[in-house]
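ok so for the tutorial part 2 we go from a plain amino acid sequence to predicted structure tokens. step 1 is just haveing the sequence, like this:
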Amino acid sequence: MTHDQATESPAGIQAWATAMQAGSGPRYLRLADFIEEAVAHGALRPGERVPAQRSLATLLGVDLTTVTRGFNEARRRGLIEARGPLGTFIAAPRAELLQRVDLSMNIPPPPVGLEMDALLREGTSRVLLRSDADLLMTYHVGGGGRTDCEAGAKWLQPMLGEVAPERVAVCPGAQAALAALILAFTRPGETILTEPLLYPGLPHAAAQLGRRIEPVAADAYGMRPDALEAACREHAARLVYLNPTLQNPTTATMPEARRLEILRVAERCGARIVEDDPYWRFVPDAPPPLARLAPAQVCYLATLSKTLSPGLRTAYLALPDRVAHAQLLAALRAFSLMAAPLTNALATHWIEEGVAEQIFAGVKAEARERQRIASHTLGSTAGAGIHVWYTLPRYWHARDLAAAASNEGLAVAPSTAFQQGPETANAIRISLGATGGREQLQAALRKLSALLANDRSAQTQVIV
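step 2 — the prediction. this is what the tokens look like for a chain of 464 residues:
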């Protein structure tokens, strides 16, 4: 075997020739781009030899300078490395000295086995085939058109049963929906009742809109009914916010008996409940939502950001009646005329065609695997959903741990970010979906585990 034969690339010699014919721009850049794409898709792997420059120039019908420039560009990008007389090889990925890994952002993990880019291309193409592009680029009715609301009702069906599309409002994300609910059903200066630990977006919206947050005592089952009744009477509160299934951040799920007690108290006090329920689908045999138990009392919110993708910016609200629906739309119009028609149409298409369920099945399966990794690495209980609530050992405070983790290239969310009123928890929320793959997640959790085991109180100070 000659040297040139030995250097023939596993990507296929013909693929190199095809690369030079496709695309536009200088040929040396086409060559570098081909190497980059082949590495990204696994056609060229680290440690594999690429063709010799002279042989490649002859094969491609270009001069040696073009190939040399292409290889230099590929080398600049960290894609190849020269090993003297042995030849040129695909380089191992460059390792950052401190690669920051995000364990703080709650997003669904990428589903294994699904090509999201292909689903996006196909879904967008189908939307454009079925819709007039001019209509997609103009103003639409706030709260979604009939087709979008029907898709929303279909998405809500597993949680709520049959929902009339007239009760559904399509919103540009859960945060916008929560702000609209606050505007619609409270007045400036009024109090909104919540649990002591909650999603930080709600108090932020309340503060910007001039409302107050009042935490209500909770136990292992969630908000306490007696404390809720006392708070309703004391503050004349008309709105209660709950996230009763896989609560963010604690992952607690309120049992059905407690849900019924809460509903009875709210009815006696004349309070409306906002049920923020993004994680219900992750829980096997989850209790029925509050909105299913008492649809006339509850505004039910389900966002696609936690089940499919935040990029869709689509959330569905099920309102108790037409009056509440009209109030919500009037409030929503104050700061968001409409949700983006193109992403709305894509979400609708995916729900109608079953693609949304396919994506969520992949997300749920991947979340389950990541929960197992977290359980094995951190010694925690394997739960459901896309985050873990980890109670810290006594020698760590949540803020200090988050700062120490940041110094190690890890971002975690301390309990102080979720706390309303006096501190009742010393924990961190570890989000499992933002890392690209399981190996990166496992490496990050191992680093975090080592940090958690570092009892700084036992360390003695060295004086020099």
